Amino acid sequence: LCKSYLQEARWYYNGYTPTLEEYMNNAWISVAVPMVLVHVFPLATNPVTKEAFESLSKYPDIIRWSAIIFRFADDLGTSSKELRRGDVPKSIQYYMNEKGASEEEAREHIRLPIKEIWKLLINTAQRENSLFSETFIGCAVNIVRTGQIIYQHGDGHGIQNFEIKNRISKLFFEPILTLIP
Fold it and tell me: Which stretches make up the Terpene synthase metal-binding domain (predicted)?
């Protein structure tokens, strides 16, 4: 995680503009989802198998895909506001720079892989021969859902206002009514 942050700082201070691919090769780690899931793993897995534990250092697909979706959701919700606050560019700006696209075209381009990676994540979660427990897989899926809730209407993390606090409060204190036939 620290190496990832340092890479972003190097790019910024050296005036280097990475390609979208270079950015994403680093950014899926800097969003911190891999760190969270690696720490959740022993808490959500019983028993912990040696094979599953050792696979964590290679960041298996379930972790990588969760992190990529979370990163894209974060970038879609925060990129323009973060730039105004002096933060480093995000996937949207790198795509715009690389392809000469408008911001809306870049946003649409970023939304496409989110849908495809969700499919991969769900297929992985439903596999029966997974190294990982259902509980851990649920955590990997739910962290992505959390990211999409936080960033779906803008920067739900960096800018905290009444509307954002109200939405988060509703998640915990107002039941979601479902109709079950």
Answer: 1-119
Length of the chain (residues): 181
- In a 13 Å sphere around the CA of 76, the CA atoms on its Cβ side amount to 24
Return d(Cα 39, Cα 33) in angstroms, integer: 10
Question: What pTM does this model have?
Answer: 0.80
Residues 6+ apart with CB under 8 A from 146: none
Sign of CA dihedral 27, 32, 33, 34: positive
Strand, helix or coil for residue 47: coil
Could you identify the residue written with the tokens 């793993």? 41
Sign of the CA dihedral running 20, 104, 156, 113: negative
Pick from 156, 157, 120: nearest CA to 140: 120
* Residue 4 banded pLDDT, cuts 50, 70, 90: very high
| Beta-carbon contacts of residue 75 (< 8 Å; ≥ 6 apart) | 27, 90, 91, 92, 110
Tokens standing for 19?
Answer: 């390609």
**Which residue segments constitute the domains of the chain, with CATH numbers given?**
1-173 (1.10.600.10)
Give the closest residue to 56 by CA, choosing from 132, 129, 109, 107: 132
**In whole angstroms, what is the distance from residue 136 CA to residue 141 CA?**
9
